[in-house]
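fyi for ur records
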Amino acid sequence: MPTAIVTGASRGLGLALARALAERGWRLVVDARVSGPLDEVAAELPDAIAIPGDVTDPEHRAALIAAAGDDLQLLVNNASILGPSPQPHLADYPLDTLEQVYAVNVLAPLALIQLALPHRPRIINLSSDAAEEPYEGWGGYGAAKAALDHLTLTFGVETGLTAYVVDPGDMDTQMHRDAEPGEDLSHLPQPETVVPRILALLDRRPTSGRYRAADIATLTGVSA
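which gave:
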């Protein structure tokens, strides 16, 4: 049975992706920092293994790879942190916090990819439009996602692995609400609406690259 690792799978886009992959018959190894919600996710999905922990912890990353085993065919690096809420300007950004943003959003995904390399899985790393657009107040998070974009694509070139960076677009998620506290985001799409576009990458198998979810719909004929 093909196996996928999905990090940050207890809510939002990670949860929506895990559910969709399970419906397609994938065996799942899911992670999140808090065990309670993650255990609930694993209980609702067939053939799912929940391993709570921090992706910056080497032992936790090794446990994810070990649980996936030889059938590991897909690695989805979705786990991410925003940084301070509300987002500060870079002139005031606490550097110790920025180091943690990079540790979670850049170094941990690369470390998992390195561990997964012997299995040669396809890679989907979740990014953001903030990686390309200089939005005021999003400098720390955006810079980390830009670094993730570049290392993912370079890793694909160097190894021949199929490596996708996906910008899902604005969604009504807890992270977005944390970034813009007090704003009404109910008009934004729910994560579930983006999932078919991301899964189209698995079906159509385009070349490695950076893809916007909205463009995937156009390129593949997947409905919005």
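The chain has a mean pLDDT of 89. thats all i got for now
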